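Dissemination and training. As part of the outreach component of the grant, students in the summer workshop were shown how a complex can be specified as a set of sequence lines and then modelled as a single object. The example used during the hands-on session is reproduced here so that future cohorts can follow it. Participants entered these lines:
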Amino acid sequence: MNVLKDNSRFTSYLDEPELESITLEDSQRTKFLDGETIVCEAPQVLMYTPLTQTNKPLKGVLTVTTFKLSFASAEDYESYSNCYQQNYLLGVNDVCLSLIDCIYQLGERNKKKLLPGQSISGKIKELLIVCKNMKYFELSFKNSDKDSGKLIANALLHHAYPKRHQLLFAYDYKEPYINTALIKEAKLFQFKHDWEKELQRTNCPGWRLSHVNFNYQVSPLLIETIIVPQSVTDSIIKEAVEKFRSRFCPVWVWGTSQGAALVRMADLLPTITDRTEENKLLEHIRKSHPQKKAPHIIDLTSPSPKDIYTSYVKLRDLCTPETPRVFKSQDFKFYGLLDATKWLSHVSTCLSKAKEAAEKIEHSNFTVVLQEGNGQDLNCLVSSLTQIILDPYFRTKFGFQSLIQKDWVVMGHPFANRLRHILSKDVEQSPVFLLFLDCVWQLLQQYPAAFQISETYLTTLWDSAHLSVFDTFLFNCQHQRFMASTGNCNAHIPLTLRSVWDWREQFSEKDIALFCNPLYNDRYIEALRPSTGLPNLEVWGQCYFRWISDLEIPRGGRPQIDLFSRYLVQDILQKQYNSADVNGTLVKINRNMEEYVDLVKKVNGFFPFSHNSALVNNPINNVLLTGDTLDSQSILNLNNE
Amino acid sequence: MSRKTGSLELLDMDPNHFGKENYRSETKSLNLGKGPESANNWGKTSPSKSYCSSSSTSTENVASTLERKKAQAATEQNTLNRQDDLTLLPGEKVTGQARDVTYLCPYQGPARGVLTVTNYKLYFRSADKDLSNVIEVPLGVVSRIEKVGGASSRGENAYGIEIFCKDMRNLRFAHKQENHSRRTVFEKLQTYAFPLSFKQQLFAFEYQEIFSENGWAVYEPIAELKRMGVNNDMWKITKINEHYTICDSYPAVWAIPAQATDEDIQVVCTFRSRGRLPVLSWIHPESQATITRCAQPLVGVSGKRCREDEHYIQLIMDANAQSHKMIIMDARPTANAIANKAKGGGYESEDAYQHAELVFLDIHNIHVMRESLRKLKELCYPNIDETKWLSGVESTYWLKHIKCILAGAVRIVDKVENHKTSVLVHCSDGWDRTAQLTALSMLMLDPYYRTIKGFEVLVEKEWLSFGHKFQQRVGHGDEHHSDADRSPVFLQFVDCVWQITQQFPNAFEFNEHFLITILDHLYSCRFGTFLFNSERERSQEKIKENSVALWSYTNSNLDLYRNPLYWANSKQERVLVPIASIRHIKLWKAYYCRWNPSMRTQDPVYQRIRELLKLKEQLENTAQDYKKEQQQRMTRSNASPT
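and obtained this result:
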């Protein structure tokens, strides 16, 4: 094996792309949103998908704007357009600046991480961009203008790492927005009404609404309307919040009609050694239970956001191999490396905590109190997982989106920090939300008929969390959102709130249809009994591996099952419709069945996230097949033949 | 009755598992109201014991199958209540029984009951009515039986028998010393688990069940070659090996280049290990590129050459007009191939074979594979240490071997399909790794082999007829458990097939249960299919006359093995190219971990799809009924004008 060749990044094995300049038709040029401005532009840039030998690099114009990094090429995607998710806000090869995680300068033998705020003065030939959703690609400026690489790098280092929240594109986006359809998508839980309804829906006795935090006067991290034990007076709460980290005293999020509630709270402040305050509140919680049962407390100190981030970085390494050599050496000890990321053990821990909570509530009718340092990370995760396990409502699309509003968005998961929308000293990046989505995905694997949402939905949700157009995942807490929307902070003009749940802002009906799980059975209402041990967990291939195009199974993989199921369900609906015609009941028919038959023949394993049109023609991939010294000189004993 | 523990529970968790299926088919005969003996009689009422292809017989058999199915459906309810009964297969008889035996279940703890040994299986039933516990293991699955504890053993359950199985589990039974039951059980187990070591015959020769399908007729070598268009200008069928004189481990019928003479064959076979010269496995329907297989050339340290062999390879290359090159895929790691020279073997030198390109595929030998599976069993049975799971999987190397075999097959497919180049495959003797590679690449290239019957043909052709030494590799009825010839080569092949079905879930007519059934009966010795080492031995033993084929069993109940996702009509991909990266290769938990109740081995997606298909069928039936009704109404109203 030629190690040198294997080590080089792009490409002795690729034809040198010709130097002639490309001309883009109007339809191929980068499109801009209302309020978006160009920062800088570079002609004649080459974009490479790492590893693959089947894909030639794309030639095109690279543009950095205040919203995105855009690459416009003359490539014809028309014939392939059914096979990938098209986003109204972004072109095929665009990424939102908020999605960019790391930028590397590539040299002959090494790569160098470029630091935010740094100013590059030397020449830059090649850049590697690694995104928060593990998308990665390489840009070559060798045919571009002399300073292009440097200018683009500097623009990215500045605009992809804003220091202030108001620099995010959402504040500049001028497109008018009327959220008429939103009401069908989710309950936002921003106001009293939704909480009141939730208390009624669950029919959980012993709790009441409190307006003690009206105008965020008690705690900016809590919502305005909180649900507390009936016996707790507002003055008790006022006193209590002083003792808790993040001023996050125990609040109700869910419960059963038998009186078992799910309660979240932070730890006491480190300065407080006397746990009397906490015990007082726990005593109130006990009293609120119809049988006066003492609550079951689950401590959620581990994994910490830091653990999760460390684990994520290692996982990301496994999902973003830049050279065939790296790919192969990872493949060589993949399960060991995967083990070392600890990602799946974190998934396992979270699932088993949620299972514990669910069992206490369901089987023993205990109130469960989740307790975590700041009350805003693992609390969100385990609390929402527990509710998904127990309550079929949260497994519908509407319910799931409402749950994320309730337990994450308004309950103060610090999305701005955790997703690193802004960069500052006290920001701790950590994909807690991704860990949650992964847990949900595991449940979906074990209970495919229990969820109305699909795997594609979960993956898209993770992508969308990094779009700086929507307010849903942009803030650290409800108070911040409120301030921004009223224009109260820094006298900025009021921010138009656009919810990510308004999927029509991003996708066509055709793509949104894929968010629904065809295997969903709405009569599946029992609690889930997930297996939480590592041997029963899997790697979420669609989300993590989709950018390694060499791993895409040509005309195979899960989409084949998915599309078949859609076809089958359509067929059943059609037949029900036909027979209903006779009986007089009407079942609405959705879409054309033949479309699925057609897609089955066309799509590859990462559908609808494949951008690898080349696969359609040439399915055999040599990177993975060429003899590998690592394999032949393996640690295995050479026994006698 | 509640059945909280034990193996039946395991079997029950997955209705697809063979134990249960077994169980059902056995109950059938009982449910007809006759004992096992009369079941035999019932069998004999059909015209002949062996299978006739005459149409009258087969219809009769079909009819009786339908009847049986009805009876089965009607008594499905009873089945649950009758599970206490030991049910016997036609030809099976009880050989020993011991009461007061304790089964030491690694998951649910000890259960006391009755242990029965038949000439086919071990059967344990817990006496505790509330905690009924049934274990049923075909004795062919047993690899080793050991006595645990001696006269001086104290402690509870310290005295008994431990049984090591080939299907990834071990069983322990404790006996009471004062009962003296251990000795009989041990002896019976020994005798019937290793009949060949005790001068007894394998159960397959006593088994009498009649099936509606004749599995022995599934594979017909000439018909299969004709399907591929042989004879044609380039390839011809030869019966030169009719009496197995050229090569005793090859079948009687093969295809060779049309230009090759009998004299060529006589010489070439002397230059290939065990006389296994290159013959045709598969031919591309459009390009005429071929896959051929053989054993290593007998080059030796001196680098011997053989003009006839070189000429013969040239003929194979010339039979494909599309390419002026030929690829020789040597399945072994380079080092092993070189080491073989010392023993008179070796590989083709590029000097001697001028237009041939030699590629080594780095697949390790049977000993490495056996060791890898041993580690895997250690990891999966009885209990799994969850915290060490991933690193444990890594350290068995099992998936890496699977990956390597798949990658080799993909390379063959690439050459044949994309480069229209013929490929010759060999390893050392050409009956282990070679069979894996040719069979897998054929499965990827030809959709026929992805049907149930096509897959049976593939196994018959590439594995059985070309002399994969099943007897040696599995050790049917033989007590030498540590025999160095044993190796899970065929299991690896089936694992690779499973991996491909995972990547192409709708490309196969059969489901996972079909693969597991094949593996279970690879060991069970209930059917004649996998017995002996070669076609020659099987024909000497008159296996077709004296035993039942596994395919008779499977093909009589095809619905059990169908993949609901199979889209045969949708003009699917002819060629499948799986991704041979470890990132896509998974441990086949439904097979390796199936005895562990904490493992999820059922595929909930398939279950849900089956539900949906049922719903669809119901709707179709309703619609049809409605149509009929309408038509009847129409005719009525036409007939009686008002």
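The first helix of chain A runs from residue 3 to 7. Students were then asked to discuss how this feature might be tested experimentally.
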